[in-house]
Amino acid sequence: MIEVFDWHFRLGELRKICDLFDSLINKSIFNLTPKG
Question: Could you tell me the superkingdom of the organism this chain comes from (predicted)?
Answer without folding.
Answer: Bacteria
